[in-house]
# Entry
Amino acid sequence: NAEYMGELRRMFRFATAALAAGATVASTIQFVDSRSYLHRQIILPLLHQLDPETAHRTALCALSTGLAPRDTSPVEPVLRQTLWGREFTNPIGLAAGFDKSAEAIDPLFAAGFGFVEIGSVTPLPQEGNPKPRIFRLTEDQAVINRCGFNNDGLEAVADRLSNRHKRLHQSNADKSASGTLESFFLGVLGRFRPSPPAGPLGVNLGKNKLQQDPVADYIKGIERLGPFADYVVINVSSPNTPGLRNLQQAEQLRTLLSAVLASRNALPNNPPVLVKIAPDLSHEELKDIAQVVLDTRIDGVIVSNTTISRPLRFSSSFANEQGGLSGRPVGALSDQVLREMYI
# Structure
């Protein structure tokens, strides 16, 4: 009997260990898969119990420390496209505003985005506007923010981009090694590290709140961060920095873009330059901007930023908060501006 009971205990321990290992593997698969039930039905609702800015910060911290899901689905060839000589694996990208200071670029690529845009980055670090400054309009599928270009500044961001550039080059060198035990272990470890970049990196530039010479700030931005960018965005349309939207006026915009392009042309990588405009412009203002774009021969226009208008009747109690509105309610307005600029 003692021998029989001992065998039963050994079998029980083995079964328990096997179940624990199986549960660990299953949980890991659920955690690293960005489309899993765990993320959609558990993690995201838990984040929504936090205030918006805390949830945002928590998500960024998790991403930057490697606690990030991955998109494990194969890339559909039909979604690939080439623009400005850069290959986009898919047309769904992450706009500026989420990773303002370049803290989680590669985990965001690993999550499945076809391109990632950091910023807006200003020459000097700034705290932005007082909190609370982000509001969820859950019932309306929208967000209002009045952050005001809170970011770590050019030098901190440049250091992160430089370090990333070195890591990517080292990673490529590691991959070129073959037939060694070291390369085998590097391959195994690579399964648990963020995937290499799957698309272009955009750098969105802004000006400091108290800067009286905005052209100088944008020139500093492109000179410092342009060498690390696949494209650069000149943000003149945030509603949360006083006077910024005045830079969309034709002559001010022409002066700004001409100066930025001159600085861009001195960079060895010659990144494309785009301008990001507001959805609140009149037909005549859009016409003037389009002419400046054609005259200066910049590489593109991003339509659009958030809106200061409130185009629908809202259900949320936060509907009257000041700031830029994004989300579903701005879709029709943005589409109209896109249509006018395209024509």
User: Anything to note?
Assistant: The beta strands are 81-83, 86-88, 116-121, 134-137, 142-145, 201-205, 231-235, 273-277, 300-303, 324-327. Confidence is low (pLDDT under 50) at residues 25-29, 181-194.
